[in-house]
């Protein structure tokens, strides 16, 4: 076990999280739902990376959602910050070592579908790793050849959809395409993405899915739609728009995830 995991296990005491959640922008409501939270800034955790992106808190939060112990990573490191697709390796490995079995990933994304406007929530059913890099490059041994046919766990996906149905919240499903960022996509790139089968585009999550599967975690993921993709409306895209719109869908996704986890039998 790493020194990082030992440090956090001491902070957690008797809590052994079953779920890990990586929070993108706009998911603050889920953090506030944690009962008796244990909060540790990334800056205090040995070896943890810190994000330079505004809107990402950079905090480890653990506690219970209902009766279920969970650990949340409020904020992530993106590939575009350092040119390192392996940036989330230690946090995800640490979640595994402190007892997490299932990892739920969230992000903000641009929609390629007219029927999925800003404020929508999309369950990620599959992804396209368009950036051309992989967090397992340089890994030794046969373990690096991770199968991705069932990257997104079917049982977790079903429970997410059941939770949305119970709450009456529309939950789209689709394919997420990972672009490296930090610049937004061009209209031509969006036309290409649509031809290749993408329903939403973003700058995160895919490396985390690969790492999670490498460490043997079950994975579910969802996107909060913050804008229509480049060329669909004629308007220019901005990070300010992402931060402004994320809370709209973020509240819906937070409600879905809380219902999904707390209703676990």
UniProtKB/TrEMBL annotation:
Boundaries of every Nucleoside phosphorylase domain copy: 18-261
GO molecular function, a single term: purine-nucleoside phosphorylase activity
Pathway connected to this protein: Purine metabolism; purine nucleoside salvage
Keywords per UniProt: Glycosyltransferase, Transferase
EC number of the protein: 2.4.2.1
EC category: transferase
UniProt keyword Glycosyltransferase present: yes
Functional note: The purine nucleoside phosphorylases catalyze the phosphorolytic breakdown of the N-glycosidic bond in the beta-(deoxy)ribonucleoside molecules, with the formation of the corresponding free purine bases and pentose-1-phosphate.
Family: Belongs to the PNP/MTAP phosphorylase family.
NCBIfam families in the record: PNPH-PUNA-XAPA, PRK08202.1, PUNP
Subunit structure comment from the entry: Homotrimer.
Database matches in PANTHER family: METHYLTHIOADENOSINE/PURINE NUCLEOSIDE PHOSPHORYLASE (PTHR11904), PURINE NUCLEOSIDE PHOSPHORYLASE-RELATED (PTHR11904:SF9)
Protein name per Swiss-Prot or TrEMBL: Purine nucleoside phosphorylase
């Amino acid at each position: 076990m790493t020194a990082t995991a030992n440090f956090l296990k001491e902070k957690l005491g008797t809590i052994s999280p079953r779920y890990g959640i990586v929070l993108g922008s706009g998911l603050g409501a889920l953090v506030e739902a944690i009962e008796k939270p244990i909060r540790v800034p990334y800056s205090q955790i040995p070896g943890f990376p810190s994000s330079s992106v505004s809107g990402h808190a950079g905090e480890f939060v653990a506690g219970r959602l209902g009766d279920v112990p969970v650990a949340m990573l409020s904020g992530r490191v993106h590939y575009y910050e350092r040119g390192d697709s392996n940036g989330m390796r230690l946090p995800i490995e640490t979640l595994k070592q402190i007892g997490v079995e299932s990892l739920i990933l969230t992000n903000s994304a641009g929609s390629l579908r007219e029927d999925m406007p800003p404020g929508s929530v999309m369950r990620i059913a599959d992804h396209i790793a368009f950036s051309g890099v992989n967090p397992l490059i340089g890994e030794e041994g046969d373990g690096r050849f991770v199968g991705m046919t069932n990257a997104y766990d079917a049982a977790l996906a079903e429970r997410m959809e059941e939770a949305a149905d119970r709450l009456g919240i529309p939950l789209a499903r689709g394919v997420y395409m990972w672009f490296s960022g930090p610049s937004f996509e061009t209209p031509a790139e969006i036309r290409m993405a649509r031809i290749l089968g993408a329903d939403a585009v973003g700058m995160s999550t895919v490396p985390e899915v690969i790492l999670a599967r490498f460490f043997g975690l079950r994975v579910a993921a969802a996107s909060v739609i913050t804008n229509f993709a480049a060329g669909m409306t004629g308007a220019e895209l901005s990070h300010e728009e992402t931060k402004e719109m994320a809370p709209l869908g973020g509240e819906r996704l937070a409600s879905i995830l809380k219902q999904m986890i707390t209703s676990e039998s």
